[in-house]
Amino acid sequence: MATTKELSVEDKLRALYDLQLIDTRIDEIRNVRGELPLEVEDLEDEVAGLTTRLEKLQLDLVSIEDNIKAKKNAVEDHQAAIKRYTEQQKEVRNNREFNSLTKEIEFQELEIQLAEKQIKEMKASIEHKKEVISNSKEKLEEKSNHLKHKKAELNDIMAETQKEESFLTEKSAEYEGLIEERLLAAYKRIRSSVRNGLAVVSIERGASAGSFFTIPPQTQVEIASRKKVITDEHSGRILVDAALADEEREKMEQLFAKM
User: Fold this and answer.
1) Taking the model in full, what pTM does it have?
2) Taking the CA of residue 187 as centre, how many other CA atoms within 13 Å lie in the half-sphere pointing to its CB?
3) For 24-73, how does the pLDDT look when each residue is reduced to its tens digit (9 = 90+)?
4) 149 Cβ partners below 8 Å, 6+ apart?
5) What is d(CA 116, CA 114) in angstroms, rounded to the nearest whole number?
6) What is the DSSP letter of 4?
7) Any long-range contacts for 201-210 (C-beta under 8 Å, 24+ apart)?
């Protein structure tokens, strides 16, 4: 193929319109996938978040159960201390020693009451966390199944379109190489600023394609002469004449048919 320097204005317009046709075809393929890739990504994030939350809840459960065991052991220690102090009361020689041991017993009884209250609260917390874990497992299973189906759906579409998209992406890069940097930058800028991605359009019934604004007859003559790159003053799109567009569409259809 000719290098950029050897291209005439007409060749540049043809290369631009060819690039537009290729990029539009790529857009159509990606539109078939629609929001699926984003849906899959969001579901993957959601599943990862639910998995992490579930793991934390289960670790919390183990921690609470360990704390309950520790509190039960502490109760046993307090009970043993009460038994020991009660036995010592039988051997005291004065009221001061007896009262001191009585205070120790009362303290141990208060510690037992506190520990039993904490055990009761922790058991209630366990029941609540078990319920939350059960709900989280159900939600995780539901989201995982949804993700599985969405991935399968996306994979099916990708399998159907990947080969064509790869071929077209290579062709797009090839045609970009034919266009001078300034013109290519303008094409990409226009393409990114319009909703349908059409940066190069043909003249249809005296107006640029998709527009209701009429192109002045003199401008139409200039466009048809293919001597310079002309843009639509209303949309900013690059304009080509209908005959050139028809020729390039036919050429591109033959290229697409080879895929």
Assistant:
1) 0.59
2) 25
3) 999 998 888 888 999 999 999 999 999 999 999 999 999 999 999 999 99
4) none
5) 5
6) G
7) 201/232, 201/235, 201/237, 201/238, 201/239, 201/240, 202/17, 202/239, 202/240, 202/241, 202/242, 202/244, 202/245, 203/239, 203/240, 203/241, 203/242, 204/242, 208/232, 208/234, 208/235, 208/237, 208/239
